[in-house]
Amino acid sequence: MYYTIFSLKYDKILLVKNMIFDTIVAKTTADGISAINIIRVSGDEAFSIVNRIFQGPDLEKADSHTIKYGHVHDQGKIIDEVILFLYRAPKSFTAEDVIEISSHGGNYIANQILKLLISNGARLAENGEFTKRAYLNGRLDLTEAESIMDMVNAKTDHQLSIANSQLNGDVHRLINGLRNDVLEIVANIEVNIDYPEYDDIEQLTSEIVIPKVTNLIEKIDRILREANTGQIIRDGIRTVIVGKPNVGKSSLLNSLLKEDKAIVTEISGTTRDLIEAELNLDGIILKLIDTAGIRDTDDLVEKIGIERTIKAINQSSLVLLVLDQSNHLTDLDQTLLNLTKDKTRILIGNKIDLGNKINIENETIINISAKNNLGLDMLSSKVKSLYIDETLVSDNYTLISNTRHIAKLHETKLALTDALVACESSLPIDMAEIDLRKAWSSLGEITGENCSEDLITTLFKKFCLGK
Ligand SMILES: Nc1nc2c(ncn2[C@@H]2O[C@H](COP(=O)(O)OP(=O)(O)OP(=O)(O)O)[C@@H](O)[C@H]2O)c(=O)[nH]1
Ligand SMILES: [Mg+2]
């Protein structure tokens, strides 16, 4: 009964069958001078290849999960004193035989060891190839593999917690739960198609299938709502600071960053090009862009800067529109208010130390003094209240945060909605089954149960070498 739907699962098996699992090698530590380097070797021949360049205990006879001391040599000439960490398949990161060589730091020694390993039969790994193997060998699902890069890139506690929960399989379990729900509905339909005498199809559709599909759509909606917060925590908020010249945009950037990143002067038109910086605002990353003040100008360089400002507004998720509280609203301010009216924005009344002349009906202005570091807390709270649902952050880290996962969940929801329409119409129930299978397969693409070789290749290319 399940044959057709289960056959989708073989995608990954086919992928694995087509691959050649030779022995790969890469330096896992970053380039440059450091105390030690770690070189990782993975594959069937890991032990025999390393054994050939190692002076010390015989590795072929060594147990898994042991540490060996010795020297790497090139035909008797000592290259370095090393420590080896041995892992035999399947109890290793890649589920293959793995040796990690811990050598002295610096690029020269590492390169010598890499060359030796390659001349003895290993191949230089591609970016992310170790993790790709862990996935293909069934050690990790795709979401867990993806979370490893998130862990490496994490800059805040929230980002790390989300990556950790994903690595622990929370996303995997969540998606598998949904897949099982879809499968159960398909099973209900197939029982009915195979044994029509047991039930009335129409009754099955309205009484069993429709509420189940509706329930699933609601579940996915809830997950997608939470995903908004997750995505912001993971990727940060692209935030642009705009305003007319001289209102204190660059001063605001500097005071938020607590450093003199941008040049501040009393001359209008000081900032000519975009200035980008990252700010950790109580756990939320703001990708800040300071811009050239918008005004009419004949200066070519300034004109280009202004064009870039307008482009930056369009590409940002959040606009910080800075107004000058020491003067009344001008036409230029009004132009900017109109230009940003459809964006998520925060109005900032700067130079509050010099006056409080601007009030805008039905809009809150956060009054600050960038120069004197006043009111910045209120700005932080405002950003947080706009983007972060505190209840989700504090007690639920099983958030979907990855854009790819979110896109696939939208696809799943669409297929389920189509299934619902089919159920509610007079179409044969088989039509709904096609849509349900589509939903099942979209969910499988998240975990990597069924996905294309292209996707796998593109995904792992984003990883660093040695990961
Ligand atoms: N009194 C007072 N002066 C401020 C404040 N913030 C900025 N300024 C002054 O305003 C002037 C302009 O500041 P900038 O930060 O360069 O302004 P900007 O908006 O980046 O200007 P452009 O890059 O030319 O568009 C400088 O002389 C700052 O010292 C403030 O809160 N109070
Ligand atoms: Mg400036």
Would you write up a description of this structure?
The protein is an alpha/beta fold and 467 residues long. It has three domains: 19-141 and 457-461, Gyrase A, domain 2 (2-Layer Sandwich), CATH 3.30.1360.120; 163-233 and 402-447, tRNA modification GTPase MnmE domain 2 (Four Helix Bundle (Hemerythrin (Met), subunit A), Up-down Bundle), CATH 1.20.120.430; 241-390, Rossmann fold. Helix content is 48%, strand content 17%. It contains 17 helices and 13 strands. The model is unreliable at 1-10 (pLDDT under 50). Residues 243, 245-251, 264-266, 268-271, 293, 350-351, 353-354, 369-372 line the site of guanosine-5'-triphosphate.
The overall pLDDT, averaged over residues, is: 89
Number of helices: 17
- Main β-sheet, spatial strand arrangement: 3-4-5-6-2-1-7
Q: Count of DSSP E strands?
A: 13
Q: First CA to last CA: what distance?
A: 41 Å
Overall number of domains: 3
State the oligomer. Answer: single chain
Helix content class: 40-55%
